[in-house]
């Protein structure tokens, strides 16, 4: 089975992009019309996030989301054969001069996208900036899939660690270059107790405290990775600072600032967020304090 999958992936990696998007259209048809992949979760998330939108618009966003999800899946596989010129053409980094400035000044940075657009392709940034680059990832239960992710994300020299391993790495880091830490900070916590709560897309949302903990350790700048999908297979990325260098205690706090930036990104074009994720599985406990009330 694994050999068959490896052969299939190898075959896909030698195909041109137009072939990938032909496969994407087929995947969309299967997910949307045949399997109805997580349609109840998607519909519930969209209705709760945008109660002001008419049903016709929500149906349009839902359909376009599935098209994008299929694109994202094939683009993740395409990453295996993409070279730097492919990334330069398809994944435009609009303000890396900001990262260059922080690198010259020896300031650590944390890059925080959401699960929006194509967050996988940011891994090639390691070739463009003068940082020691570390990414936090969640280990997959399937060892084969986990190995593929590690290979795909780490092929340009990106160091990959699970959260607790990354924290130990930061404690013991001796690199002369400043650190660039990368992870999508909108993941759902494992448990709902003893976590910060924010209002995100009209809903009480359990937040992952790791962003704040890592920032206190690095004491650098946190940049929200604002992604726009220009057209199929083409993206623009802008890095937006959420704090000043050395600023640790802030009002509103870092987690609130992150979710405000992410919500702004989503509201620009809701089609490209990961609506199939059961992000709002938890309800807040009675004693919870919910920040960013609207």
Describe this structure as you would to a colleague.
The protein has 294 residues and is α/β, with parallel strands linked by helices. The protein has one domain. 44% of the residues lie in helices and 16% in strands. The protein has ten helices and ten strands. Helix 7 links the parallel strand 3 and strand 4. The mean pLDDT is 85.
The number of helical runs is 10
**Number of structural units classed as domains:** 1
> What is the H/E order?
HHHHHEHEEHEHEEEHEEHE
Shape: globular
Q: Termini distance? A: 51 Å
Mean pLDDT: 85
Q: Could you tell me the strand content as a percent range?
A: 15-25%
Q: Report the sheet with the most strands, covering strand number, pairing sense and barrel closure.
A: 7 strands, mixed
- Structural classification: alpha/beta
Can you count the beta strands?
A: 10
| Main β-sheet, spatial strand arrangement | 1-9-8-2-5-3-4
Spatial extent as radius of gyration: 19 Å
Fraction of residues in helix: 40-55%
Poorly predicted regions: none
What descriptive keywords fit this protein?
single chain, 294 residues, alpha/beta, seven-stranded mixed sheet, three-stranded mixed sheet, 10 helices, 10 strands, 16% strand, globular
Entry summary:
This protein has 294 residues and is α/β, with parallel strands linked by helices.
Topology, element by element:
Blueprint: H1 2-13, H2 17-35, H3 39-49, H4 55-78, H5 84-90, E1 91-93, H6 96-104, E2 109-112, E3 132-136, H7 143-154, E4 159-161, H8 163-172, E5 179-182, E6 197-200, E7 203-206, H9 210-218, E8 221-231, E9 234-241, H10 254-268, E10 290-291
Parallel strand pairs: 1-9, 2-5, 2-8, 3-4, 3-5, 6-10
Antiparallel strand pairs: 6-7, 8-9
Helix pairs in contact: 2-4, 3-4, 8-9
